[in-house]
Amino acid sequence: MTCATKPCATAPYATGQQYLKDGVLPHMWCPGCGIGVMLRACLRSFEELGYTNQDTVVVTGIGCTGKLDDYLVTHALHTTHGRALACATGIKAAKDDLHVVVFMGDGDSVTIGGNHFVHAARRNMDLTAIVINNFNFGMTGGQFSGTTFNGAITQTSAYGNPERQLDICALAEVAGANFVARSTPWHVDDLTALIGEALSRKGFSLVEVLSPCPTHFGSNNKMKKGTEMLAWLQEKTVPVDVWRTMSPEARTGVFPIGRLVDRNEPDFNARYREVGARATGN
């Protein structure tokens, strides 16, 4: 394991190349999938913030996003489905000096892992959760998940999903997260900036990356190509400042993107130290 260095002063921009294993590219994700775009944005932010291979822990679960740690030269923990945040909570509680970054899909984070998501945000654990929301369980065949929107066609909803979708960012906000943001692979510069901001914040920070699965969800919902998915993301997203001026009717089917929540509440470890000081009289 090698130690990452800060970007060279003469470099035009960060690349994050030092966090990747040799010979791992091209990656395994399908053409049009946004995981690769998200990973590049994250690794560039690692470099810009001075993260090293040895002080960074990447935690993943199951599914397409769960393969991500196979590509990285950092500490890594590959967990069972829905348990990534539970394991990350334990890591951060025990080793407060580590940068803990959790990569999840919508199934891992809020469908199977919804309980852990709520309590990690409620505790305001000092970690960063990056969620690729591809609107289905992509690796297991394209079943609908908790974020699949009502009426969508999937392998398990051939005539339309009867359920309402879960808003990941709204859930994080009401549970108590310090920082919540949303972006897409189409808005790659904004995505990189928001991930960098999330990584630099204390407390629970979330970046949701909207990226419909092109193989399953997209093929069933008029987005059979990656370019069609990107066009859909451009059409269906608006900056949050604009979204807040829109009527409830106009907001239907539209996602606000950008920085959605920004507060500065003490994180779990800071509160825990306060309890320890009271207990010991120090």
UniProtKB/TrEMBL annotation:
GO terms for biological process: cellular respiration; small molecule metabolic process. It comes from Rhodoplanes roseus. GO terms for molecular function: oxidoreductase activity, acting on the aldehyde or oxo group of donors, iron-sulfur protein as acceptor; thiamine pyrophosphate binding. SUPFAM superfamilies: Thiamin diphosphate-binding fold (THDP-binding). The keyword Oxidoreductase applies. It comes from the Bacteria. The keyword Oxidoreductase applies. Residues 71-209 form the Thiamine pyrophosphate enzyme TPP-binding domain. Coiled coil: none annotated. InterPro entries: 2-oxoacid:Fd_oxidoreductase, THDP-binding, TPP_enzyme_TPP-bd. This is Thiamine pyrophosphate enzyme TPP-binding domain-containing protein. Keywords: Oxidoreductase.
